[in-house]
Amino acid sequence: MPRVLRHKLLSKSPPSCCSFAQTKRSTGALPARCSLELSLNEGARAAGPRLLALINNTDLERYSRQILFSGLGEHGQQRLLESSAAVVGCGAIGAATAQLLARAGVGRLRVIDRDFVEPSNLQRQALFDENDARESLPKAVAAERKLRALNSAIAIEGKACDVTPENIEELLGGYSLILDGTDNFETRFLLNDFAVQANCPWIYAAAVSSYGLTYTIRPGQTACLACLLEAPDAGPMIEETCDTIGVLGPVVNLVASLQAAEAMKILSGNAQALHQRLISCDVWSGRMQSIAVLRNPQCRACVRHEYSYLNGEAQPHITLCGRDSVQIHERRRSLDLAALGEKLAAAGIAVRRNDFLLKFTAPPHEMTVFGDGRAILKGSTDPAVARSLYARYVGS
After folding, report:
1. Catalytic residue status for 281
2. Given this model, what pLDDT does residue 111 score?
3. Which fold has domain 83-291?
4. Which of 7, 54, 202, 247 has the highest local Cβ count within 10 Å?
């Protein structure tokens, strides 16, 4: 663990409690026109005709409880509906964060993920179910379907692809905020390079075992990820993964909640409420900690503007979280999955295929091939083995 992550315990007094709890079935406890109703009606009148369009339709019922929160209010809700965010990686944290933002009413939401749903995901990845795993659906496809069912009034798009230096502008350009749901530092440093160059805020988040952390990065105003993890005194990066020491569902949801709350502050126009600290938490020990992160005056990314990841100068093979696997980045041609499946079946290889991917076994390995040429080899972390099997079964 980086030494910079070892920091003092955060101590904060709990907020004062409300004088009563209100539910749909307890309206008799309130006067005929309670202060909650009055605050909505008066706020809508003061906000003008544009906001009245929100208050006078079914969005009032959907978002009423967060509109009542004084930190957000009617104006903040309108800003959320007009905002956009991209979630990169729809695993445990990304799925939970995307769900929270869709429910909150972020107007345009894009979810990007290169992977597919497996049974081992279901323990902690809240958007997916057994049918998704049975069909090996791409996570982006399954997430789009689930998020549309949660909130059909916002624009939701799933992109089943990897984020690379070549396509990152196309995938993330024009979005107000980027949220980290990835499982590797190579992609995070790529996101950091892009965000710093584009002056776009993004929120780093990670969880493993019972421990998680999150940090909001605003280029030019806060330290960036390179400041945090590439500083000479930062120590080695965390090497443990879900594959080696596991992960608990509760820490994933806690980190996602912290990340989504910071996102709502930015997207609703309440950046002054950002805590500007690295927050870490351990749901097993009960510890919550925070630290102020200083900018590195010699930072490669946000000071010297050397974007090595964005320029494609630093992208090694990637071992995926939760599996003994390696991804192959092969985009010289698109693949005809139906034709490939027929070829493999004719060779006596059992094949499973849907509209998005093809899966087959070459004992002791399992390979999943996508239409854009990418492949994931399960059962090895050796790039040479992956390349050899890809050339043998898919073609060079």
Report:
1. no
2. 98
3. Rossmann fold (3.40.50)
4. 202
Residues of the chain with confidence (pLDDT) below 70:
1-57, 231-241, 243-244, 315-323, 330-333, 384, 396
Q: What pLDDT sits at residue 330? A: 64
- For the beta sheet containing 357-362, the strands, ordered from the edge strand earlier in sequence to the opposite edge, are 325-328, 375-378, 365-370, 357-362, 351-353
Distance, in Å, from the CA atom of 289 to the CA atom of 66, rounded to the nearest integer, reads 27
Q: Domain 325-393 in CATH: superfamily?
A: TATA-Binding Protein (3.30.310.10)
pLDDT score of 319:
55
Per-residue confidence (pLDDT) for residue 11, from 0 to 100 = 29
Tell me whether residue 251 is exposed, middle or buried, using C-beta atoms within 10 angstroms of its C-beta: 0 to 12, 13 to 18, 19 or more.
buried
Extract the tokens encoding 144.
């789009």
- Tokens standing for 27? 């309206």
Ramachandran sector of residue 379 (left: φ over 0; alpha: ψ -120 to 50; beta: rest): left
Domain range summary for the chain, segments of one domain joined by +: 30-76, 83-291, 325-393
- What pLDDT, on the 0 to 100 scale, is given for residue 394? 85
Among 90, 227, 242, 302, the active-site one is 242
